[in-house]
Amino acid sequence: MRSVPEYRGRFRREQAERLLWRAGFGPRPGQAKDLARKGLDGAVRSLTHPASRSLRGRPAQVGGRPLAPRDVWGHDSLWWLDRMVRTRAPLVERMTLVWHDWFATSKAAVDTRWMLHQNALFRRHALGNFRGLLRAVTRDPAMLVWLNGVESTRELPNENYARELQELFTLGAGRGYTERDVRELARALTGWRADWQEGAGMVGFRYDKTWHDPGVKRVFGKRGRFDWRDAADLALEHEQHPGFFVAKLWGYFIPEPPSRRTRAALERLYVRERHDIRPVVAAILRHPALYTGPRMVKPPAVYVAGLLRAAGRGVDSDAWAWMLPMAGQALFEPPNVAGWNDERWVDTGTWRGRWMAANHVLEGRSLNPDPAVTKYPSTRKERPAEAVARAHRFWGKPTLSTATRRELIGFAQRAGAAATEEWQQEGYAILRQNALRMLIATSPDLHTS
Amino acid sequence: MAHHCRDFAHAARARAGQGLPAIEPGMPAPAGSGLSRRGFLLRSAGLALAVYGGGRLAPLQAEAALAQAPLAGGRVLVQVFLAGGLDSVSFLAPTEDATYRRLRPRLALPPGTGTPFREDGRLRWHPSAAALAGLHAEGKVSVLPAVGYEHPDQSHFVSRHFHEVGALDPRLATGWMGRYLDRVGTMDNPLQGLALDGTLAPALAAGRVPVAAVAEPGNYDFWARDVWGDVEALMLDATARIGAAHAGGGPATAQVARAAMHTAGLRTRLAPLRERDGVPAFTSPVAYPADPDSDFPQRLAALAAMLGSGLPLHCVAITAPGDYDTHANQTAVLNGPLKLTCDALAAFQRDLEVRGLADRVLVHVWSEFGRRAAENAEGTDHGAAGLGLVIGSRAAGRMVGEFPGLDVLDQDGNLRATSDFRGVYAALLEQWLGTDANGLIPDAAAVARPQLVR
Predict the structure, then answer these.
(1) Is A141 helix (H, G, I), strand (E, B) or coil?
(2) Cβ–Cβ of A167/B378 closer than 8 Å?
(3) Is the CB of A158 less than 8 angstroms away from the CB of B381?
(4) Domain containing B260: what range?
(5) Do B181 and B263 share a structural domain?
(6) Does the pLDDT value for residue B36 go beyond 50?
(7) Where are the alpha helices (DSSP H) in A7-110?
(8) Taking the model in full, what pTM does it have?
(9) Distance (Å, whole) CA B305 – CA B334
(10) Distance, in angstroms, between A51 CA and closest chain B CA?
(11) Helical H runs in A211-328?
(12) pLDDT tier, A1 (very low <50, low <70, confident <90, very high otherwise)
């Protein structure tokens, strides 16, 4: 029985930077260097056992007013983005996003009030126990509305949650269950109800025995008078579950699937730890594939929160509420119950959304191109490499590839050469600096980690 | 299986919403909001275009100037997706059938509802589909009342994936239209495969050639704060250069790099469509339905305008409004978004007719499956065979496969398929796009082709 492989290579700023992106929302200025000093074990431990879950700094304000996530359109996503930017426990916040994708529920059909309630649930269980999480989700008001639990009765069971419980949440499509299991689990899950109240939406979520089908069900070859708790436990204890769980969890941190050996070792760890999430995440974060494997596209919310962190800016604009959707990730509104497709984050449409987001991060940070306002060396004085270095410092010196550096310098040269008239040379240098910041933020290096 | 489920997760529905926050000056407009940004933007866009037009920037010059040879004689295929699994039994309802009334005590349409379906006296068009019933009477709609495949999978994501890749293969990563474009497309025309949605349609995912996602063709522009003139043009050029420098990188890097590479060219090509101060750059010759919650009609109007302006579009994918996964609330979905979808599709057909383009465009409407024959209270659970439509002046206008009836269902209580979606794709490829389906649809040799094109 071999344990999960661990990364033994050097752990410096570059590795710490990748870890902070994969397990959080990227480094604040200087944070990668600080984390590298802790070494791999210390760094991972600081993420899995954060000293504080409180948020840094002051709560976000838009237009001089505090956010109203329950009441104002879009403020729910601003409220969460603000947490991502200010968190002292980035892995907890990142896992909250993972569970939002895993148990993807959408405000397209659920009141914001219950979406926020579910969000707190995900955060509470972020690194907890999957059995506890699964049971909590099974009776969660948002989920009961989203997958029609409250419309499922003993007379007319609704299959929606029963199917996704197996297909998306615990086992995987076509892995160890039949259409009959879907129907029988639907019967077991009956009993939840709620009331519709004008002005308040769905309220009064409760378990009502008279709505539950008390009969014998046959699920995965077992017979019993199963109820909702049993339904969650049966799926969790299915022999196909550990393999599904560790591989799906792995996919949020590392783009290539685990080797058979690693997967088996992770499964053993998960079962031995009685479905605790934290040790499995810790093992994935220490795995060599995270540091030596291929790059991964950052989810749009992670990209945006990370740019804000790097630029030292908070959430102070409500534009994020529509920019995140354009970048391909409307928080609280995943495309469907399977969550976002993180293998296809970027196309010509979402790339434009990400461009606009980077541009918006620079709001109030760009240099005024009027040389009378901004003191800045002219294109004759500032060499292209200096201009690039200055823009690089603005973003806290993220790791850049040679190819990107070469193109940035090429651009800086051309922009400098375009200032053919003397009156242009001061203004163009400033325009060039603003452009370089955008080019760095939107380079493939920054869109991936 | 690691990424199995999430492989099948899909394009976000761009939801341009109620109560959007105010747009500050110089800020781009949110998708579909109808709001506009002004001033600064126009200035910078105009300057950049002038530079591109002058051909000063080497990598983009060729793309901007390129005259595209039309593919397949300029024919265009538009796939319209009804997400969630449309209830085909409501779309064409056996309203007088006793079994229907027994299986659907709450949801059955009352006897006599809707226009009779000429090709099968048992069926009537849902009132929401009245506009398509009208086109059907003109011979411009082929109905597939029960399209599916053997051993139907009742997972949204598996069944949808099968339809997107054109095969019963959970691991195939390229879309069926994407593979077609890989065969006939070019390396410099992302518009050849265009998703008119917020994200790329998986059916268009190509292995070799570029394809595009553009949610709002009238608003595909880029700007950067306090950057303009020559420097802005050079910056946009540099985004493409940085992309090109990384196009051969690993999968994640290459995905970003390729998008970056093609944005500048797309922006140039779409410039003639760019709205000015919120006013579209084109006018539609017909009226499209208006709906505050969906810009689907406007996207179709823009599509007709793009085709009218000669842009080199070839395969197009667009998601219809509505969530057809009607486990509950079915009546409202079929009365609302379905009607908007059908009305908009009919308007699009009329638009093409007025523009003289109707002989060049064929529309294929699909959903990942139909729904259970029996209702569950206010909705229906996942089913098997579902609805397909082929719409256009060149559509054969004849039903493909019969309505299988509700008296003999499959073992799960679902409708049995009387046509196969892979046969539909093979027929569209061969009869409409003029290419051999073998090598594009893995099971092409095993499936029969219905006559879909006249």
Answers:
(1) helix
(2) no
(3) yes
(4) 38-67+221-273
(5) no
(6) no
(7) 13-22, 31-37, 39-48, 75-86, 90-102
(8) 0.89
(9) 29
(10) 32
(11) 228-237, 241-251, 260-272, 278-285, 288-292, 300-311, 320-327
(12) low
